[in-house]
Amino acid sequence: MKLFLKIVKDFPSYLWSSWGSIASIFLFLAFWDFGHQIYGDLILPSPKDTFTSLIAILQDQNMQSEILITIKRALIGFGISILIGSFLGLLAGLFITASVMSRPIVTILFGMPPIAWIVLAMIWFGMSDTTVIFTVFIASFPIVFVGALEGTRTLEGKLKEMADSFYLPFSMKLFDLYLPHIFSYIFPAFISALGMSWKIVVMAELLSTSDGLGASLAVARSQLETSTALALVTIMIASLLLIEYLIFEPIKREIEAWRD
C-alpha cells in the first residue's frame, strides 16, 4: 500500500520527466507524414487520415468490444506467463540440475515460430479464445522464465555470506538483497514478454478467430482500407505504451530507487 501511494504521489513528476519520449513520438509522426507525401494514400495514409479513422473506430461500440476482447486475451496470456514463468524460473535458478535440464526446453520454445504454435493451438483447441491465450502464453513464457532463472543464478555468493555473517533477518535479506537483484533481471523480461504478447495476440486473432482486433485487421486488409488497418495498429501500440509507461515503469522506478 505504501508503494502504491508513493507511485501515485510521484506520478505527475514522472509524467513531466517523459517529455523526451513524447518528443520522439512527434518526430516519428513527422517521418510518417513525409513517407505519406512520397508513397500516397494507398501505401501509407497520412497521420491525419489515420487518426480520423481511429476516432471513428473508438466511437463505434462494436469496435470498442473488439478492442476489449483483444486486450483481455493478451493480458490473460501475459498474466499466466508471468505467474508460471516466474515461479518455474526462480525454482530452476535455485537448483543447478533443474537449470541444466531446462536449457534445451527453453531453446526449443524460443526457436519455435509463433505461427507454428498458432497452427497447433487451432488443432488442439479449435477456433476459440483458448487458442489465442495459449499462443500468447507459450510465446511469452520462455522470456519470463529466462529472466527469473538468470536473476536467481547470478545472486552473489559473497553477498549472501556477508548477510549471514551479520545475522540479518530472513525478511531483510529477502526484500533488501535478493529481490532487488532478481527484479533487475526479471522486470526487463516482463516488458519484453508484454511486447511479445501484444504482437502475438493480433497474429493469433487474425488467423484463428472471427472477433478481436486481429479479425478486424484481416477485414481491413481484404478491403484495402489502409487507414483503418493503421488505426487498428495504432490502438494496439497505444494500449501497449499506456500499460508499460503508466503501470510498469512507475513501479520499476520505485522498486529500483536503490540504484540512485
Automatic annotation (TrEMBL):
Keywords: Cell membrane, Membrane, Transmembrane, Transmembrane helix, Transport. It holds the Pfam family BPD_transp_1. It is a multi-pass membrane protein. Residues 67-247 form the ABC transmembrane type-1 domain. The chain crosses the membrane at residues 12-32, 74-98, 105-125, 131-149, 182-207, 227-248. It is found in: Cell membrane. PANTHER family: ABC TRANSPORTER PERMEASE PROTEIN MJ0413-RELATED, ALKANE SULFONATE ABC TRANSPORTER-RELATED, MEMBRANE SUBUNIT. Belongs to the binding-protein-dependent transport system permease family. This is Bicarbonate transport system permease protein CmpB. It comes from Aliarcobacter thereius LMG 24486.
